[in-house]
Amino acid sequence: MMTIHRRTQTGLFLGTVLLVLLAGCTPPDEAADTAAVDSRLAAGPWRGEIAHFGRQLPFNFEVTYADDDRLEVTYLNGPERMPVEQVIEHADGRIELNFPSYAATLTARQTQGRLEGEIGLARRDGTQTFTFTAEPGPTHRFFAAPQPVEIDVSGRWQAKISYPGFGFDQDAVAILEQDGHRVHGTFMTDVGDFRFLYGEVRGRELHLSAYDGGYTQLWSGEMDETGRLAGRFDSATYAEATWTAELDPQARLIDPASVTWLQEGVERFDFTFADLQGRPVSLSDPRYADKVVIVVLAGSWCPSCHDEAAFMAPFYETHRERGLAIINLMFEYSDDLEDVREQVEAFRDRYDIGYDMLFAGDASRMTRGSLLPALNGIFAFPTTIFVDRRGEVRRIHTSFPGPATGLEHENYVREFRAFVDMLLAEAPDA
Euclidean distance between the first and final Cα of the chain, in Å? Predict the structure, then answer.
């Protein structure tokens, strides 16, 4: 999703680890009997609960079967539908729902029509594991029976998120939409957004959650008599945090084009990194001469980078013949490509990326700045650098507002397209 702006003095990045699969405790003969009785997952809606830092994090998903009888699972977060990358049904009744592009997995066994198992989420300091259960049929998020609604949280909110475990606060803008008791939206920060959140209002309380295969989020809050929201936020990345928000239609964050720039005295932006086959590639190579080059600082662990790739990959295919080139500089959990190759290649394959991907090195806050010394720093993933046909940097945009931000995303995409069209229309010697 994001890294932390340098003002927070904190960075937290994910780590390369092997995910832990759930080991069945049932003897083999009993497991086979259970699988035979339960057969396959029931088609239709399912509701699950993850045991998450002492609370229950609810999530919804849908089970369908393709024409070839292949099992398909889709996670639901309000308007978002997230198909599971890899679904594996084992002969012994175990089921895996994996996201190789995040190095994340869910492994479970069906017993008496219910799923019980464990999710594994890769983080830099190890694998975060959480147990969960799920059952077919229910479609509600938090509460089976809606209660009277006493507040309306629709609108734009100036917010602040505090991470006591890491000693910093983070400015945010919450964008929420409420329809009756149902709510969806997100929280944006200077370095990215928290993607799709979904939940409901109960009395004066707000409840939101998200599980998209790679990340967990659980938000709760209550509105006081002044209209101020305050509550708790838990995630696999940040553990326990707190947040406050006040309704403000003019709520804004810092200009994302003002965060990152070329160091004073840098006459030309350039770099050399190896591609995924180990061959050195430089921005100054003849293959990029006279082209508009978009350089994206990204990481396969980063949710906002996934959102950006989902947009950028098809954009490239429709503009490459006009002289557009794109280079992804991948900053990962390790400074050794072999440690993360499988995840990076899964990221590439998930979005059918046809442009160049280079391995830049470790995304750690302590080391990443030295990998691109021409910049004043690397404060967020993704960061997008626009280089014109003459090789001059024309703009640097920090972060990517994803689809969950609604109009923010639509406005950015529109401005992005217009700016790139302008660069493509320019002559190399203009």
Answer: 38
- Beta strands at 272-275 and 356-362: parallel, antiparallel or unpaired: antiparallel
CA 379 to chain CA centroid, Å, is 16
Residues 6+ away with beta carbon under 8 Å from 10: 4, 163, 166, 167, 168, 365
- Cα separation, 26 vs 116, in Å, equals 13
The rounded distance, in Å, linking the Cα atoms of 139 and 143 is 10
Give the residue-averaged pLDDT of 12-26: 33
Residue 73 near residue 84, CB atoms below 8 Å: yes
Taking the model in full, what pTM does it have? 0.89
Q: How would residue 165 be classed by pLDDT, with cut points 50, 70 and 90?
A: confident
Query: Is the model's pLDDT at 11 over the cut of 80?
Result: no
Cα dihedral sign for 298, 302, 307, 310?
positive
| CA proximity to 211, closest of 52, 58, 20, 13 | 58
CB burial of residue 194 (10 Å; 0-12, 13-18, 19+): buried
Task: Say how far apart CA 137 and CA 18 lie, in whole Å.
Answer: 33
What average pLDDT score do residues 323-351 get? 96
Q: Is the pLDDT of residue 39 over 90?
A: no
Delineate the domains of the chain, giving CATH numbers in brackets: 6-136 (2.40.128), 155-247 (2.40.128.120), 272-425 (3.40.30.10)
Strand pairing class (94-99; 104-111) = antiparallel
Residue 240 phi, psi dihedral angles, 5° rounding: -105, 135
For residue 270, which amino acid is it? D
- What is the pLDDT, as a whole number, of residue 38? 58
Cβ-Cβ contacts under 8 Å for 399 (sequence gap 6 or more): 2, 190, 191, 192, 256, 304, 380, 382, 383
Single-letter amino acid code for the residue at 244:
T
Q: Answer yes or no: is pLDDT of 13 > 60.
A: no
- Return the bridge partners of 113, or none: none
Query: Nearest-CA neighbor of 151 among 195, 207, 193?
Result: 207
